[in-house]
Specification:
9 strands, 37% strand, single chain, Temperature-induced lipocalin, globular, eight-stranded antiparallel beta barrel, Calycin, Lipocalin_Blc-like_dom, Lipocalin_ApoD, 13% helix, mainly beta
C-alpha cells in the first residue's frame, strides 16, 4: 500500500506530439462544482508552434455543451518528467486572470491510447482514453496504478460517454467554463 507522502511516479520522456488529440474522460474524482450529470466529458489537445499545448475541455449537461479553453506547458522545461501546468483564463472576471493547476501524467501506454492523470495533492484523478469506452481489464489496471500512487480510488466516478460522441458544433457561450476550473483546482 503506497503512502501518501511518497513522491508520485510520473511518466518520463512523454512524446507531446503523440499525446495530442482527443481524450475521453472514462472516470474521474467528481468535484463538488462539476455538473453532477456531466456527460461525454472530453479534452482535445493541440500543439502550438511555441511548444505549449492548446487545451479544449468540453462536457454536456442537460443536453447543453459547456466548454473552456486554456494552455498547458511543462512545469520545468529542463526536466523529462511529464509534469505540466494548465492555465485557464477565467471568465467573467476583468481583467482576465489565469488560474493555474497541476497536470501530472502518471501513466500512459506505449500506443498512447489510455492515460492516468493526477496532481501532487491527490485531490484529482482522471482516467482518459482515446475511445469512448475502455476495456474493463485496462480500467482495473489503471485503478491499481492509482492505488499504488496513494489515491483513494473509492472516489472514482465513471463518466457516461455516448457512442458516437456528440459534435462540438453547438454554439454554447464560452463563459460557462467555471465548473471545470473549480473541479480542477478546488477553487
Amino acid at each position: 500500500m503506497a503512502h501518501k507522502s511518497k513522491e508520485m511516479v510520473v511518466v518520463r520522456g512523454l512524446d507531446l506530439e503523440r499525446f495530442m488529440g482527443r481524450w475521453y474522460e472514462i472516470a474521474s474524482f467528481p468535484s463538488f462544482f462539476q455538473p453532477r450529470d456531466g456527460e461525454n466529458t472530453r479534452a482535445t489537445y493541440t500543439l502550438n508552434d511555441d511548444g505549449t499545448v492548446h487545451v479544449l475541455n468540453e462536457t454536456w449537461s442537460h443536453g447543453k455543451r459547456d466548454a473552456i479553453e486554456g494552455t498547458a506547458y511543462k512545469a520545468d522545461p529542463k526536466s523529462d518528467e511529464a509534469k505540466l501546468k494548465v492555465k485557464f483564463y477565467v471568465p467573467p472576471f476583468l481583467p482576465i486572470i489565469p488560474v493555474t493547476g497541476n497536470y501530472w501524467v502518471l501513466f500512459i501506454d506505449d500506443d498512447y491510447q489510455y492515460a492516468l492523470i493526477g496532481e501532487p495533492l491527490r485531490k484529482y484523478l482522471w482516467i482518459l482514453c482515446r475511445k469512448t469506452n475502455m476495456d474493463e481489464s485496462i480500467y482495473e489496471e489503471l485503478v491499481q496504478k492509482a492505488v499504488e500512487e496513494g489515491y483513494d480510488v473509492k472516489k472514482l466516478h465513471k463518466t457516461p460517454q455516448a457512442d458516437p460522441p456528440p459534435e462540438s458544433s453547438d454554439q454554447t457561450p464560452k463563459d460557462k467554463g467555471g465548473w471545470w476550473i473549480k473541479s480542477l483546482f478546488g477553487k
